[in-house]
Description:
Layout: E1 2-7, H1 14-23, E2 27-32, H2 36-46, E3 50-54, H3 62-70, E4 74-78, H4 81-86, E5 92-93, H5 98-108, E6 123-128, H6 136-149, E7 154-159, H7 166-169, H8 178-187, E8 198-201, E9 204-207, H9 221-234, E10 237-242, H10 256-265, E11 268-274, H11 277-290, E12 299-305, H12 313-324, E13 328-333, H13 336-345, H14 349-352, H15 357-367
Parallel strand pairs: 1-2, 1-3, 3-4, 4-5, 6-10, 6-11, 7-9, 7-10, 11-12, 12-13
Antiparallel strand pairs: 8-9
Helix pairs in contact: 2-3, 6-15, 8-9, 11-12
Amino acid sequence: xxxxxxxxxxxxxxxxxxxxxxxxxxxxxxxxxxxxxxxxxxxxxxxxxxxxxxxxxxxxxxxxxxxxxxxxxxxxxxxxxxxxxxxxxxxxxxxxxxxxxxxxxxxxxxxxxxxxxxxxxxxxxxxxxxxxxxxxxxxxxxxxxxxxxxxxxxxxxxxxxxxxxxxxxxxxxxxxxxxxxxxxxxxxxxxxxxxxxxxxxxxxxxxxxxxxxxxxxxxxxxxxxxxxxxxxxxxxxxxxxxxxxxxxxxxxxxxxxxxxxxxxxxxxxxxxxxxxxxxxxxxxxxxxxxxxxxxxxxxxxxxxxxxxxxxxxxxxxxxxxxxxxxxxxxxxxxxxxxxxxxxxxxxxxxxxxxxxxxxxxxxxxxxxxxxxxx
Length: 374
């Protein structure tokens, strides 16, 4: 017996489909839901095998579809294919085929057929590191600016949901978070990424972040996935500035959930640590935490390297290698003159001083091993 919930929102086809399902001896209609709230509640409590929904059901969005699917139900849409796909439903049939589709799902116990879509062409580069201001945002911005200066189409995504600063660093007035606005549009199935990306330099745009940590829950994971897909599809490189650290004992709660989720989505990862004893200790602990996350082999970058610390780069790199098992890919010199001028004028370090030691070191990092990563 295949258990089914139906949520049609009064669609014209509802009576005939309901009658067909109820007359079938091998199908049990668990509930005829009046709205998405009841749909989510019933699927959570009863765990039906199939949820049949109208593609135009009011309130149906990415978050609702993900919650229904998480209960174990295969989500089957009836109606407009494009509208269904926009909220993450890949299985759509006309009303007369609902019963056969329900039976097929039960017989095969397989994933529903997926529509063939365009393959994203861009790459996502995550920039992450421990707490303690190692310079994640500055490094992410510098990498994005360097890639754009060499002709790439780049979107810098401020996904630090514990307090993003990219808009402030770039002197941009953005009353609302571009990331939150894009996620809201994506959740409704109506994302136009370009509407939310602020121009910075030729080839470089910014999807601004959240300035207050208590707003992190406005970035819902299903919608964020869509936004990142759009960044991939609309750019050569998406550079994602991530919040600090992880929370191994957090049990899936709090802003670290977003960071963890994005780390799993990136194609390449730069891990930034501050080049002093405290920064190295934090970096090593973070690299150990990272072992629990399925990420690509990280590029470890030491930032703010300066002679006054008393250790040279070779000593610092050897310490990181011996204690974490990761080699250091690059060391970026402390360049307060350039970076302070950049922050003061709302420009990237590249625009302030193309020949500065920091900018040259970033170029060396992006060129390291070829241009496949950045």
